[in-house]
Amino acid sequence: MDNSDDPIKATRALLNRPASLRHGFLDVLGESASAPAPTFAQRAMNSPFVATVYERLWRPMSFYLASGITTGAEQRRAADALRLSAADRLLDVACGPGNFTGELARQLPEGGLAVGFDISEPMLTRAVLDNSGPGVCYVRGDGRALPFDDETFDAVCCFGALYLMPEPFRVAQEMVRVLRPGGRVAILTSYSGQAAPVRHALAAGAGVIGVRMFERHEFVDLFTTAGLVDVEQQAQRALQFVTAGKPAG
Predict the structure, then answer these.
(1) Range with lowest mean pLDDT among 23-32, 59-68, 235-244
(2) Angle at which helices 59-67 and 71-82 pack, to 10 degrees?
(3) Hey, what domains does the chain have and what are their CATH numbers?
(4) Nearest C-alpha neighbor of 188 from the set 74, 45, 97, 60
(5) What would the pLDDT profile of 80-123 be if each residue is shown by its tens digit?
(6) Between vectors from CA 43 to CA 37 and to CA 44, what angle results, nearest 5°?
(7) End-to-end CA distance of the chain
(8) What separation in angstroms does the CA of 136 have from each of 10, 157, 232?
């Protein structure tokens, strides 16, 4: 079946646990489950107001200041790194309001499926309203236990979210688990490889709002230890972009 004909049905078939349809997205957590939000940054990601302004104002401005790269350039780099022109299924972990999910879906071949995944109801509600389309579906769940079987997706990404999560390395390991042999993974996250005065200032500011700063080697080592190949890292100011592939066969 062409995934663009009924992306909800196609996504439901990939899930390994029951999901209800709420506000246009599939929910494996249920109405009673809520995302833990102990820090300011995590509370913001669960705010309906932030969900509304995130993709239009907050993210483009903050990420440009942090990296010097525009959202459009980020999206083009992501599509190239993930080799979406040859992918059938994409998983966008911590997709927020879908500002990357919807755009990357258009880079998939005809009949491809892009699944945006997040724990925040307000973000996913916004994603359904603003960034739906053929071959796009959104799922609510916990990234520490992705509700998909091993080797389900050709491309898996997480842009601008791992530094907010209580167990980021567990989430990254889950991303590797659901990646098919021959598939590609890409992350954009914080970076603390600057000179000492700048690094200390960034760490202090990040600590106040609850953002974790990652060292240069942490995700490179994680992907390498997991058996991934072609691991590459690009650092821009306070952000790092790391890509890798899972060996085929």
Answers:
(1) 59-68
(2) 80
(3) 7-28+62-246 (3.40.50.150)
(4) 74
(5) 999 999 999 999 999 999 999 999 999 999 999 999 999 999 99
(6) 155
(7) 25
(8) 10, 15, 28
